[in-house]
Amino acid sequence: MLRIATGFVAGAWLFHQLAAIPAAAWLPGEFLLLLTLVSLRRRVGPMVVVLSAAMCGFGISHVHALASVPPSLASAGSVIELLADGRIVSLVERDAERARFVFEVDHVRVVGTGTDAMAGGESRPVDGVRVRVSWYQAPGLQPGQRWQLPLRVRDAHGYASPGSWDYEGWLYWQGIRHVGYVFGDAPRVQLAEADGPSTLRLRQAVLDALDRVELSAFARGVLGAITVGDRDRLDATAREVLQQTGTMHLVAISGLHVTLVAALGLGLGGALWRLVPALCNRVPARIVGLLAGLVLAFLYAQLAGFGLPTQRALVMLAALSAAIVLRTDHGLVGALAIAAIAVVGWHPPSVVNAGFWLSFGAVATIAAVIGHSRGRPWWQRTLMVHLALSLSLWPALAVFGLPAASVGPLANFVSIPLFGFLVVPLALAGVVVSMPAPGFGGDLLHLAGTVLDPAFTGLQWLAALSWPDLAAQALPPAILVAAMTALVLLLAPPGNPLRWVALPLLLVALAPRQSRLPGGAFELHALDVGQGLSVVVVTAGHVLVYDTGPEYRSGFSTAEAVLLPFLRERGVDRIDRLVLSHGDQDHAGGVERLAAAIDIGDIVSGEPDRTGTHHRRCHDSDGWRWDGVSFEVLHPSSETPMSGNDASCVLRVDNGDSVVLLTGDIEDGVERRLVEARPESLRSDVVFAPHHGSNSSSSQVFVDAVAPIHVVYSAGWANRYGFPTGPVRARWQAVNAHPLNTAELGTVSFRFVPGETPSAPHAHRHANARFWHHRGSADTGLAVSSRD
Questions:
Q1: CA-to-CA distance for 109 and 124, rounded, in angstroms?
Q2: What is the greatest pairwise CA distance in the chain?
Q3: Cα separation, 283 vs 286, whole angstroms
């Protein structure tokens, strides 16, 4: 059974590495290949069993992918305006300014641009197109309501950068291909109220009940997460503390929570059944308890929205229960193998989700430790389980770019029992009781909140210790193999002669790794931060960050969503110098949160009065040298104070062979001054188009003076400004500069080594393309390497 599960999961994983879904015409060929392999299984041997299972996993994934392509409205890159009739089919997320929800459209009237045409044209039906909608100053909305809304819609397009969250994949597997917002002055018409019973409205009612209870922000967010699966109420501070302490899994309804509820059903169902001995003679109480646990777990999963992690946990639990009831002779390993096949068969994309590997890894680790520690006191076994989980899950966390919190074992040692025996039971009891008795139910929810508040204080204290976390950087294959081998040996039964090899292998895996860059070399990374700018320059021993990208009114910042994950993925724990070109929010957003999350040597700014009083002013007398690489500030002048875009700090990076020019948002007046004063310093191999490719910049005289090999446009996908504009692109093209747009290519990386021909730029979006990702430009001329 283990061989079959290994092959099946491997085949599904292989399919989900494809950049495009193969045509349905390939399915008959895949089926014939499967039949051929099955017919050879007795003559060739066990390996054919693995290959047959792999082909089966690949084929099932193919069928699932073909059936799961969400319906679409817009073509790639387009923004359309339409009058849409549809229904709210998700919980309504609210903050101070807007409501967000999934809107399933059934009729549209495409109007192009402007609201005057809203009354014209014919409404046409569409097949359940889902749009994630933002509505500012929205009225009270409820799931199930039907509305007619004027929407501005575009393709869903997330950040494509190492370490960043796969937003596009998250939307795709919910059947969502578009995002949009309610716009203009056209009427918003409610067509119908929600009708009939609905799990969705029940979930919304639970959230409304939580709003009526006096709770701290942390308690309200956690209780919403563990009851109905709504984590949007967790604020940035709570998320950061949970991440730093390795306890984020406690607020994501998955295996732990579903198992707790199933265990409650198992105990109650079995106990009640035993009250009638005659029933026990017919059906064992153990089986009734398992069925009761599954039913209770299913109801909980429905309340939690039946999301993919919850589905995975429920299928895994059902498969394990079936193995117990049927008394299969496969043992625990066989039961886990059956569960893996069931989970992947139910939802093949699970194989590329960290939760799948962490869930099965955790169950296998717990079983191995408990099996080896029989006869020890309970507290020793519990401690061994926590330590083993922290170590054994580290490679999986590293593969998915997730940090392994060093305080995690201590935090979870206290938090898991607290949640399991107090918070979750109180929260669920409060939800159930609040339906017939809102007052008493509210008291139970308030009691759960009073338990959570001191727990949050303790987690904050642990997070403040700032112990170094195990690096979340991507592990080289050899190191990953060493780590996994060491952990398998550590979990092997006592007496295994190879266990002594585990410690040296683990030390090798945990050892700090030296820079791959020789002296004089540097890497340049233009991060995909949407409509903004953030650049990372790495030398042999130093890291410079130029701008942090945008921050929005909601509090979301790319400093946290893109820049920090990128640095962590590369194992960077210190920024030696942060240069903020000027004070605009698309260049200096989230600086305070960045400074709170990572050590920063010093901060230089073109507008310190806007970015921070403790920031040193950038001026043209600045210059320094790191590891054979020179950094020189060309603008602004220390004698002529400037503000706004023209105050941007222009930085030149030079290793003797290659030159990069970072320009911020300077406009044509500053460009002309630079051409007049420093023409010899402008010639570059790579230049960042000033002001994202705006018509205010990239003057002809400046373009001619720079004459780069590559021009980088750091711009947002389908941005409202139209950057880079046509005239700007034409001017750079006239000097044969190769265009690189982060909106299309994601993070773009360069590597410059003295004496070597610079390698082709590396585009993260294309190198890591999967069939659920949004497509950029078809013609890139870029290298696709395995670095990511």
A1: 6
A2: 99
A3: 8
Nearest alpha carbon to residue 566 among 603, 586, 538, 605: 538
Pairing status of strand 124-136 against strand 738-741: unpaired
pLDDT at 119 exceeding the cut of 70 = no
Which of 244, 261, 144 lies closest to 203 in space, CA to CA? 144
Tokens 């700007």 correspond to 728
> What are the domain boundaries of the chain?
2-67, 79-196, 202-354+404-464, 477-510, 522-767
How many Å apart are CA 651 and CA 73, to the nearest integer?
43
Distance CA 606, CA 614 (A): 13
Residue 523: Cβ within 10 Å count: 19
* Domain 522-767 in this protein, CATH class: alpha beta
Q: How far is residue 684's CA from residue 690's CA, in Å, rounded to a whole number? A: 14
Q: CB-based contacts of 648: which residues, under 8 Å, 6+ apart?
A: 581, 582, 606, 635, 636, 663, 664, 665, 666, 670, 690
Q: In what order do the strands lie in the sheet with 623-626?
A: 623-626, 629-635, 650-654, 659-662, 686-688, 710-713, 738-741
Q: Using DSSP bridges, classify how beta strands 98-112 and 93-94 pair: parallel, antiparallel or unpaired.
A: antiparallel
From residue 299, alpha-carbon distances to 97, 226, 228, 369, 523 in Å are 34, 14, 11, 31, 52
| Two tokens, residue 166 | 């796969």
Question: Quick check: 185 pLDDT over 60?
Answer: yes
DSSP letters, 226-291, are HHH---TTS-HHHHHHHHHTT-GGGGS-SHHHHHHHHHHHHHHHHHHHHTSHHHHHHS-HHHHHHH
- Token pair of 666, please? 């300077």
Report, as an integer, the average pLDDT of 94-117.
77
> Across all residues in the chain, what is the average pLDDT?
85
Q: What is the H or E stretch that residue 536 is in?
A: strand 535-538
E-assigned strand segments in 123-254: 124-136, 146-155, 176-182, 189-192
**Total-model pTM:** 0.84
- Local confidence band at 121 (pLDDT 50, 70, 90 cut-offs): low
In Å, what is the CA distance from 481 to each residue of 344, 470, 486?
Answer: 24, 17, 8
